[in-house]
Amino acid sequence: MKRTATLLSAVVLLGCSKPATVEQDLPSFLSIEPSPLQAGQKFTIRYNPSDTAAPYKNPTQLIAGVFFQTLDTVATVSYRIPLVKGANGIWSLECTVPEKAYWCELWIAPPELPVYLLQEMRTPVFVGSIPQRAALPTKMDETEDSASIVELFQLDEQLYPDEYWRWASLWRWNIQHGPGIRQDQVDSLWRIGQNSISATAVCLYGFALSREWNKAAQAGQHLQKLLTAHPNAEIPWSLLRNLLSTTWAVLPAENKASDEVATALSTLWSRFPKELDASRRLSEDHVAPERFYQRGRHHYETILESWVQRFLQAGPASGWEEEAGGALKAAINLVEWKADTARALMVLEKAVHLAQRLPDSAAPGCGIRVPLELLPSDRVKWGWISSLYAKIGELSLERSPTTAEQWLRKVLQLPLDAGTIGSTVLACATLARLFLKRGQLDSALKYYAWVYQLSGERRAEALRKELSPFIPAQSAERFQKVELLVQRYPYPRAIQADIPVIITEQGELINPTQVPVPVLLLFSSGACGLCKQWYPRLIKEIAAARLPSRIIIVTPDRSRLEGLPAGTTVTYAPLSFELHRAFQIRGFPTVVVLRSGRVEYQGSLSSQQHLQTIMSLLQ
Questions:
Q1: How far apart are the first and last CA of the chain?
Q2: Measured between alpha carbons, how far is 81 from 69 in angstroms, rounded to an integer?
Q3: Predicted confidence band of residue 345 (pLDDT cuts 50, 70, 90)
Q4: What is the pLDDT of residue 377?
Q5: Which tens digits make up the pLDDT trace of 414-424?
Q6: 452-463 mean pLDDT
Q7: Alpha-carbon dihedral sign for residues 244, 245, 249, 250
Q8: Residues with Cβ within 8 Å of residue 125, at least 6 apart in sequence
Q9: Among residues 503, 519, 483, 515, which one has the least CA distance to residue 593?
Q10: Reported pTM
Q11: CATH code for 502-618?
């Protein structure tokens, strides 16, 4: 269910008998006041859990992610804000729209909800009764209806005749749904708009889509001049980034004219690396290798050199603190493309210095300070820092094993959670290799045992095979007796199990760490004969013994168990990616017993002995 708030513009289109409208779709369980959002003004978001369409019926906590695209800042303005439950059961928050914001995206969810399940909502920002500049072209990119596209285009043309971003949105829609791009439109716009940043950027995009490579190269070079000549221009950088990225994606290989376009684009990313999010290009050899090889590495090296230079010069509170991911990509590329380990280490150490300035006890929340226990953001900070430490340790091995050891040990000193465990395992494996090569067998065995405890048998076995050429023959047997090694070298700190939230088929969210009774996860499927045989027997014995518990049957196929005792309450939930990853489900039946956030049992249920073991844990 959705309710549509129709926002009337004060401008009446020529030739139209009614005011032009911008429709703002909001789910029925959500309201925003005032509506539409007003630039520079406070607003209130309200969430109604009793609405039939509400995804979270009985939340204990809710947070909102609010993101604004603005005309006066390069980066997205991001807030994470907790909602407060009122006496009427409605959850709400207050925030302020930045003065130059033109677009808002937001989500509301419990803190434990997996990121990929967040339901995002998008809405334009207004100034009075008029959409902010760049709001309507952004809205066009969200629209598929042809009549709405035309209406939004005409309204933007009336409101902002000297801005031309709407043309790119129109052409994009025409290519996907309509007759395609018209070359005469691109040529006409180029003739009249060469003093305009928006017209030049849009023509660069249009010429590329029309395969007019010489004209596209000319437009790209002209865009560089305009951006350099007008450093304080208010630009919707999100729209410009999208245009350049799409243009880059359509460039063909082995074409001299298109290579000139690639040169113009790489120069743009080099001159404006932060503004145009150049770090995205630095990973294309891995995420889009065909594009990487088509463009030629020299274009990527141009972008890399400029990005590294700007990053190393960045000061505190410069906006580069969030670029830890870009720093990792840049360091890897410096090593792989240029064999420049020295500068790679400089980039990583600078990234550590900047990342350490990120908040760990509080986070920004639209003018207020919010305790991080309400927000899933501290994991991000320590996750990035652990990755940086591990990569510095890895790259320092050949230059200075002692320095490498120091950085790798730093990883092991960080909080151990889902954000850091990957780097922790990597650090342990690297230390195991380092000490084995030094001939320090006991230390190598210790870190090998820690890899086993942190990541399981498969990863440890792969490490053992990798180390086998260096293991002395008389010591090989010690590496194979993993259980004894674990007893001798237990991991020194408690491993915080990352038990995910469980989303039932009815949409209820269950956090097992907050359930006061034991939680039984019975992983089942319709084709599992042992599940049909043993799960009803287990549930009957639990009911007969009147053991308090929460029974959740997790299935990939929405199958149901039959033969359950009358009056027994069970909950069904789909087998999510998070549950599969957390418990490494490899078959059915699998039973997991959770108590106070700890895994007390994980195994099969195919014998009376299994059943008795589970029952004993519930008593």
A1: 45
A2: 17
A3: very high
A4: 40
A5: 877 667 878 89
A6: 77
A7: negative
A8: 36, 37, 38, 39, 68, 97, 101, 102, 103, 104, 131, 132, 135
A9: 519
A10: 0.72
A11: 3.40.30.10
Tell me the two tokens of residue 452.
């086993």
Q: Which residues of 522-537 are buried (b: 16+ CB within 10 A; e: fewer)?
A: bbbbeebeebbebbbe
Place of tokens 């408690």: 494
Burial of 10 (0-12, 13-18, 19+ CB in 10 A): exposed
> Which residues are paired to 124 by β-bridges?
103
Q: What share of the chain has pLDDT > 70, as a percent?
A: 87
Instruction: Decide which of 3.30.300.30, 2.60.40.10, 2.30.30.50, 3.30.70.120 is the CATH code for 2-130.
Output: 2.60.40.10
Give the pairing of strands 130-131 and 362-365. unpaired
Instruction: Give the Cα separation of 36 and 70 in Å (integer).
Output: 16
Query: Which one-letter DSSP state was computed for residue 564?
Result: P
Ranges of each domain in the chain: 2-130, 162-276, 283-315+324-356, 384-488, 502-618
Greater pLDDT, 374 or 140: 140
Going by C-alpha positions, the residue among 389, 422, 390 that lies closest to residue 498 is: 422
User: To 5 degrees, how large is the angle CA 202–CA 257–CA 197?
Assistant: 20
Whether the pLDDT of residue 559 is over 80: the answer is yes
Q: What is the mean pLDDT of residues 124-153?
A: 92
Q: How far is 46 from 62, CA to CA, in rounded Å?
A: 11
Cα(604)–Cα(528) distance, integer angstroms: 12
H-helix segments, 456-562: 457-467, 476-480, 482-488, 529-545
- Sequence-distant (6+) residues with CB within 8 A of 601 are 591, 592, 593, 613, 614, 617
Query: Nearest-5° angle of CA 237, CA 226, CA 322?
Result: 30
> Which residue would you say has higher pLDDT here, 199 or 494?
199
Could you give the CA distance from residue 385 to residue 119 in angstroms, rounded to a whole number?
29
